Amino acid sequence: MNFNPMTWDAPYLVIVGALFVIVFCRANGTYWLGRLISRGAERTRARAMMDSPGYQRAVQRLNQWGPPVVSVSFLTIGFQTLVNLAAGATRMPLTRYLPAVTVGCVMWAFFYGTVGSAGIEALGLVWSRNPALAVFLGVLAVSALVVFIVWRVREAKRRRPEPVA
Asked: What is the rounded distance in angstroms from the CA atom of residue 141 to the CA atom of residue 6?
């Protein structure tokens, strides 16, 4: 089966709808896995993942910002899985989680159904013609994303009011 939505023979909204269902099931499965893991994590290997810095950052952001983090996490790669797992493990109420995950899944489905898969196709085309250029463009894109994230984190820390003692 071809998982590239650009090659599916279906109307655009059907493709976006299918992508929404796929990501919604995956995200909610991860949420419920987080809830299950949190119950017995002390006695399993999953505890190591829950102690990882990435997971701890996800829990911290989730507790600090709540459902908007769930929604925005769908614009990232990898972090969204940790956020959904953390939402389940920290037992975020479904009345807060489901609207947030729905918004995130809609964004992801539209993004992946258009820009995301087109970008993957373009990178594949560049790779077939000039692998060095494809690697350079990939490193450049990741570097730009890292610089942007670091800048936003520093700005947020700078604007954060000092705690009252």
From this structure: 22
- Residue 39 CB burial class (10 angstroms; 0-12, 13-18, ≥19): exposed
C-alpha 161/C-alpha 25 separation (Å) is 38
- Read off φ and ψ for residue 155, nearest 5 degrees: -65, -40
Label residue 113 exposed, middle or buried (CB < 10 Å: 0-12, 13-18, 19+). buried
The answer to whether 61 and 83 are in contact (CB under 8 A) is yes
- pTM of the shown model: 0.62
pLDDT given at position 2: 60
Residue pair 58/85 in contact by the 8 Å Cβ criterion = yes
HSE toward the beta carbon, residue 4, CA cutoff 13 A: 9
| Coil/strand/helix, residue 30 | helix
**Please, what is the angle between helix 12-40 and helix 79-89, to 10°?**
50
Higher-pLDDT residue of 163, 11:
11
Is pLDDT of 1 > 60?
Answer: no
Q: Which two tokens stand for residue 93?
A: 């109420």
22, 114, 129 from 104: Cα distances, Å: 13, 16, 35
